[in-house]
Design a protein that fits this description.
- The protein is of the alpha/beta class and about 475 residues long.
- The chain folds into three domains: about 1-260, Rossmann fold (3-Layer(aba) Sandwich); about 310-405, Four Helix Bundle (Hemerythrin (Met), subunit A), CATH 1.20.120; about 415-460.
- About 45% of the residues lie in helices and about 15% in strands.
- It is built from 16 helices and 16 strands.
- It has a five-stranded parallel β-sheet with strand order 5-4-3-10-11, sandwiched between helices.
- Helix 6 packs across helix 7 and helix 11 packs parallel to helix 13 (about 375-390).
- The protein is elongated, with a radius of gyration of 28 Å.
- The structure holds zinc ion (ZN).
- Zinc ion binds near residues 208 and 233.
């Protein structure tokens, strides 16, 4: 099992800290709005990774967080007049519902930032005692990057590079402009908690360090998150945790690529955010998964106008093979080891879902030929595909229903003589002359077309 480790910049053979067990954490969602495709992608990737590690025999404990107090949530609360905690809870419910619809598995441990305020305060206290953090007169607490010499190790930058990478604020109470907030003193009207430094709330980075410590202790095997979190968020997590424990925090840092929409970064300010709910109203949840997993997790996903329609088309074609098997009375049962082996090979190479999915095209082609030639391996192959690819959340629908619901009937430019008959038939139907309507349908069929009635008239399709 090889994993690309951001820390070393290399694909490495995976070795857990404790034989047979894996502690895995992935940064979760800041619940300032509804789930968008980026959230879905991240949740999906780490769920798939977890499931594969379980498949190859590890006992995985997987934790994720919800950031439920933060500037953006407070801004939303002020905008809507809903108290910040209520607003966050509302969004969590909303996000959970969409993730459930996508059938993304739940982590073993879910932690909300506001549930571990005591742990966070304890963590910060110890960092102050060890000389890695300092409170200011205002009641903020900062981490001192100068106290942690290997700062920048994950993002492979030195302090000078890092300096160019941060928005340096003008807080003169900071010892180094790179020092980051562990605790933020309360502003008027903001949610706050009592602390040794006065009323305030935790900074974002400390949350993940404190939660990891709470859930797992000092060290974990795998830590995941979006590539945009490498600096400063994950760099800061390492600094906080290692400054406190003196032990290496994470053995394998995994970072997923980002979502682009027609080549552009997806962001709220550009107005091109794709909400998960809207996508699943339009496409099947399996289509969304198929499209998102068609790229290796480290690559960026470019959402073009064709990405989801193409994925859906492929899935419909695949489901048609299942439907054909049923039609021909093929019993879908048995095993077909090669399919599973190939899948495991692809996934063992840094979770290459793109390769695993591209294998499907030849599997289904072979299976279809086997059905048509009466080869009994067809049923085994299809059953194995179902079993193996359920790890990616695919082929769990009823084939006929999926095809019926998601097959797009393309309006074809039928020849004029066919349209003429269709128009006559439309007139006959308007006059409720059903006999004539049936007669004309037969004529259209003889001309090589199918006709389907719709609210605004009819659709002609070339007969298959
Ligand atoms: Zn985090």
């Amino acid at each position: 099992m090889k994993i690309y480790n951001t820390l070393t910049g290399k694909k490495q053979e995976f070795k857990p800290i404790e034989e047979g067990k894996i502690k895995m954490y992935a940064c979760g969602i800041t619940v300032s709005g509804e789930a968008h495709i980026g959230h879905a992608y991240q949740a999906l990737i780490y769920d798939v990774i977890r499931k594969f590690l379980e498949k190859i025999g590890y006992e995985v404990t997987y934790a994720r967080n919800y950031t439920d107090v933060d500037d953006k949530i407070i801004a939303k609360s002020n905008e809507t007049g809903i108290p910040a905690d209520k607003y966050a809870l509302m969004m969590i419910k909303n996000i959970d519902k969409q993730m459930e619809r996508l059938k993304v598995g739940e982590p073993n441990v879910w932690i909300k930032a506001t549930q571990c305020i005591d742990d966070i305060i304890g963590f910060i206290n110890q960092l102050i005692e060890k000389g890695h953090a300092y409170p200011t007169e205002k009641g903020d607490v900062y981490f001192s990057v100068d106290s942690f010499p290997s700062y920048g190790r994950l993002s492979h930058r030195n302090l000078e590079d890092a300096m160019n990478g941060v928005r340096v604020d003008n807080d003169e109470s900071k010892k180094n402009p790179l020092d980051f907030a562990l605790w933020k003193s309360a502003k008027q009207g903001e949610p706050s908690w009592a602390s040794p430094w006065g009323e305030g709330r935790p900074g974002w980075h400390i949350e993940c360090s404190a939660m990891n410590k709470k859930a797992f202790g000092d060290r974990i095997d795998i830590h995941g998150g979006g590539r945009d979190l490498i600096f400063p968020h994950h760099e800061n997590e390492i600094a906080q945790t290692e400054a406190l424990t003196g032990k290496p925090f994470v053995n394998y840092w995994i970072h997923n690529g980002l979502i682009k929409v027609n080549g552009q970064k997806m962001s709220k300010s550009l107005g091109n955010s794709l909400l998960l709910k809207d996508l699943m109203d339009k496409y099947s949840p399996e289509t969304v998964k198929f499209a998102l997993l068609s790229t290796n997790y480290r690559g960026d996903i470019n959402v073009t106008d064709n990405l989801f329609p193409d994925a859906e088309k492929h899935l419909v074609e695949f489901y048609k093979v299942f439907a054909l098997a049923k039609e021909k009375g093929v019993e879908i049962d048995g095993e077909y080891k090669q399919i599973d082996d190939k899948f495991n090979d692809a996934m063992s190479d840094d979770f290459n879902t793109a390769l695993a999915l591209s294998d499907l095209f030849s599997h289904f082609k072979t299976a279809k030929n086997a059905i048509l030639s009466g080869d009994e391996k067809a049923g085994c192959m299809l059953n194995q595909i179902k079993k193996t690819y359920s790890l990616l959340g695919l082929f769990e629908e009823n084939a006929e229903e999926f095809i019926k619901k998601y097959q797009k009937v393309e309006k074809v430019q039928a020849p004029k003589e066919v349209i003429d008959v269709a128009e006559q038939r439309l007139k006959a139907r308007a006059e409720k002359d059903w006999a004539k309507s049936d007669e004309l349908r037969a004529v259209i069929n003889q001309m090589g077309y199918d006709i389907k009635d719709s609210k605004d008239g009819y659709t002609l399709t070339k007969k298959q």
